[in-house]
Amino acid sequence: MTSNGARPRPPRKIGPRLLAPSRILRPTIRRAGGGRDRGALVVKSYDMIAAGSKSFASASLLFDKATRERVWMLYAWCRRCDDIADGQELGGTLGSQSNLADRVKAIRVLTRRALDGEPTADVAFDAFGQVASECGLTMEMAEDVIMGFELDAAGWRPRTEADLARYCYHVAGAVGVMMAQVMGVPSGDSETLDRACDLGLAFQLANIARDLDEDDAADRCYLPMEWLAEQDIEPGQLMKPHHRWEVAELANRLVVRMDRHLKMARLGTVGLPFRSRWAILSAANIYGEIGYTVRRRGREAWNQRVVVSSWDKLRMIASAFFEALRNTPRPPDDAPEWTRGDILIDVRMAGAIAPPPMTPLPDEA
User: Fold this and answer.
1) Rounded CA gap, 113 and 107, in Å?
2) Does a structural domain hold residue 144?
3) 321 found inside a domain
4) Are 325 and 185 contained in the same domain?
5) CA 39/CA 47 separation, integer angstroms
6) Residues 162 and 191 reside in one and the same domain
7) What's the sign of the alpha-carbon dihedral 151, 83, 161, 361?
8) Last residue of a domain, one of 137, 170, 196
């Protein structure tokens, strides 16, 4: 008891003080480009396109300033996604192909953060967030591209021409559609967007024809299994010397398809502003030359990597200038077999491409 006879109070238990949520966690401020300075994003994006694709960098300089900057930022995202998926740097030598599924997951997460205006700690993804906010690019558009990386991560290979069409759409045709919107093509202008898809498909077909040897060295093959069976090319023997004539024939089939899609793509440039039309026609000429060179070289196309010289690029850009002035492209004699509409039906309704069945193809029986 105390001196005045009162009973002492028990000591008060003091628990941990709870802070208001606002004092613990502050919400991330959502800003286009993750809060980075737009000018800095543009500079970094150009550095990536200049190092990763000299052909496209040359053509992109022909756009007006606003379009050019947006094209660079979209390209930076495409290039960075490709590098993450392939474990490489600016399209260089392929790195380790382990943990591919985790890499694709990272691409998807960073892309979502960029579209939500959250910082990603990666300049290319922040640049994508910036251009997406300016041009109305969506996660569905990005998903069409990411699904191409997902197919590679699963070790997928095309069994049929329809499978090849879908792969080309994911990795290039869908990018063409996004590029068109970056250039100001309305989302409801299906005709022009279809032609933009044709351009992407053509670019990818040229890339596949040129890179058959590099892909084979990385244990990848984008030629349909049905084509290989028709030519009696055994698994693992694609780039062996005794099959060079057959491979040259298959590469020619790719180039024929490339040519048809390029000619269709030119039809879509008619309504574009002059500088955009000139840039697109220049890119078409340069990438087309890659495919045509593969065809001219025949069985020797993979003795040395096909490149378009600086002089040839200037010549093709000059040719594209006059094409853009005339603005009277001719349609192909034979329309492409693949259309964006048919591919999208497969993409939207068929779901993921199943692993190829182990049943023998007709020519193998």
Assistant:
1) 10
2) no
3) yes
4) yes
5) 13
6) yes
7) negative
8) 137
Question: From the centroid of its chain, how far is CA 83?
Answer: 11
Mean pLDDT by 10 residues, the chain (365 residues): 60 57 57 83 92 80 93 93 78 59 90 93 94 94 92 86 94 95 93 96 96 90 94 90 95 97 96 95 95 96 93 94 96 92 82 50 46
Q: Are residues 237 and 111 in the same domain?
A: no
pLDDT digits (tens, 9 = 90+) for 61-81: 899 999 999 999 999 999 999
Task: Tell me the per-residue pLDDT of 208-253, one tens digit each, with 9 for 90 and over.
Answer: 999 999 999 988 899 999 999 999 999 889 999 999 999 999 999 9
Q: How far apart are CA 86 and CA 92, in angstroms?
A: 9
Tell me which DSSP letter residue 301 carries.
Answer: T
- Measuring CA to CA, which residue among 104, 228, 76 is closest to residue 157? 228
Which residues span the domain enclosing 55? 31-137
- Considering the domain boundaries, does residue 131 fall inside one? yes
Amino acid sitting at position 134: E
